[in-house]
Amino acid sequence: MAFSDLFTPGFKQRNRDHFAAIVRVALADGIITDEEKAFINRTAINLEIDDEVVEQIMAAPEKYPINPPATEQRRLERLYDLTRMVLADLIADESEKTLLHRLVIGLGFPAEEATAVTEKAIALIVDGQDEDDFIAAFK
Fold this sequence. Notes:
By secondary structure, this protein is mainly alpha-helical. It has one domain (8-138): TerB-like, CATH 1.10.3680. The protein has seven helices and no strands. α1 (9-27) packs parallel to α4, α1 (9-27) runs antiparallel to α5 and α4 crosses α7 (131-138). The model is unreliable at 1-7 (pLDDT under 50).
């Protein structure tokens, strides 16, 4: 039995949808750089996304919904991943920031705080914060 078989279909679906959100961020500026592609590939492996599903998502990431995590911890983990994707090519262009802002709201952060959350997340990644420090900065 594969390790991934231990998880429910809902768990796999949330991973797939999170992966699709990461791909959307990468495609926000119309191109996927080598750095972004490497991040996407690592994330697919970490989330145990099959190659066939990766191809489907890469072709049409907008088909997959944003499933907001139920806990603050999970929401911040997803925000960390998404923000790292924005900065994977070391450039956070406006289209990527705009999409990240929308995804912040989709993750369940209050709309009136979305701009501040987006800016803080980007600043923390630029500062080189690891996931634990990133999450702690929001608590």
